[in-house]
Specification:
Length: about 110
C-alpha cells in the first residue's frame, strides 16, 4: 500500500473523528488509550485532538508520498515509506498523550491551571 493511500486513509479518519466523534466511550471507534477512556471529559478531548493529529499525519504522509514519486530514492522506497508512517504514528500517539497529560491527572480529573 502506497504512502499516498495511507495518507488518504489518515486524512479521512481524522476528518471523521473531528466531524463525527464517538459520543460515548467504546471499544470499537475513536482514539482509545487508557487515559482517553478514563471518563467522558478525557474521551471528548482525546477524540478532537486525535482527529486533528490524524489529519496532520495524513497530510505529512501525503506530502512524503508525492515527494517519493517525484524523487525516488535508491533504496527500497516502500520500506522507507513504512518507516516514515510508523514513526509518524508513534509521534502522533506521544504528542496526543502529552496533551492529555497536560490537561488531566492520571485519574482523569482535570488539572487546575491557575
Amino acid at each position: 500500500m502506497s504512502c499516498i493511500t495511507i495518507a488518504i486513509i489518515f486524512i479521512l479518519l481524522g476528518f471523521i473523528l473531528i466531524k463525527y466523534p464517538p459520543k460515548e466511550i467504546n471499544g470499537i471507534y475513536g482514539y482509545r488509550t487508557p487515559l482517553s477512556k478514563k471518563n467522558q471529559d478525557t474521551w471528548d478531548v482525546a477524540q478532537k485532538y486525535g482527529g486533528v493529529s490524524m489529519l496532520i499525519l495524513g497530510i505529512v504522509n501525503g506530502i512524503f508520498g508525492i515527494w517519493a514519486i517525484i524523487q525516488p530514492i535508491a533504496i527500497n522506497n516502500e520500506i522507507v515509506q513504512l518507516i516514515v508512517i510508523l514513526i509518524g504514528v508513534i509521534m502522533m500517539i506521544v504528542v496526543d498523550e502529552m496533551h492529555l497529560r497536560k490537561l488531566f491527572n492520571k485519574d482523569g480529573s482535570r488539572k487546575n491551571n491557575s
